[in-house]
Design goal:
It is a single chain. By secondary structure, the chain is mostly helical. Helix content is 92%, strand content 0%. The chain contains three helices and no strands. Helix 1 runs antiparallel to helix 2, helix 1 packs parallel to helix 3 and helix 2 runs antiparallel to helix 3. The longest helix is centred in the middle third of the chain and has 113 residues.
Length: 180
């Protein structure tokens, strides 16, 4: 039975430790991490118990484990979860100053990069303004010619419409009055 208990404790500790390490990388909320760590510790404890029973000597021990394994594992799992939560809090407290320092260093670095980039951005902006003015100056004669052409066409269309209207009025035999 000693190997089974050792398997339970070892499995729970290893499973909880691995899950805790994985979750601490991706999440800050210890309240959300603790249930997942406890579940993983339980699953690993059962696996450790099976390994311990196999090492202890076979089928009779596995049958005994199946009958009493869950009841024996619950206190161990509770203890493993408490230890894991305590260690997670200690790890978070230990890491916090380092994380804060890293954030401060990153902020300073970013501010320096912004200051370094400012002259380049201003130069690019000035060049873009010059290019836009040059493009506008080059396009101005074409735009003016297009506007002049559009006015001529509009005048022609208006003249044609006036003539057509006069012909229609003449067909209707109505008096035509042209205001000058």
């Amino acid at each position: 039975m000693g190997k089974i208990v050792k398997g339970i404790v070892l499995g729970a500790a290893v499973g909880a430790g691995i899950r805790l390490a994985q979750d601490l990388k991706g999440e800050d909320d210890l309240g959300a991490i603790a249930p997942r760590v406890a579940k993983t510790a339980g699953e690993a404890a059962l696996a450790g118990a099976a390994v311990g029973a196999t090492a202890a000597g076979g089928a009779a021990k596995l049958k005994l484990l199946a009958e009493s394994g869950v009841a024996a594992a619950v206190p161990v799992l509770q203890h493993a979860a408490e230890v894991a939560i305590k260690q997670a809090r200690e790890a978070a407290d230990t890491a916090k100053p380092h994380v804060v320092h890293a954030a401060e260093v990153a902020t300073e670095w970013a501010e320096e990069r912004i200051i370094d980039a400012k002259p380049h951005v201003e130069k690019a902006s000035k060049q873009a303004r010059k290019r836009a003015k040059k493009a506008a100056d080059q396009a101005r004669p074409k735009i003016e010619a297009a506007a002049k052409d559009a006015r001529k066409r509009a005048d022609n269309v208006a003249d044609l419409a006036t003539e057509k209207a006069k012909r229609k009025l003449a067909e209707l035999d109505l008096p035509v009055v042209v205001a000058v």
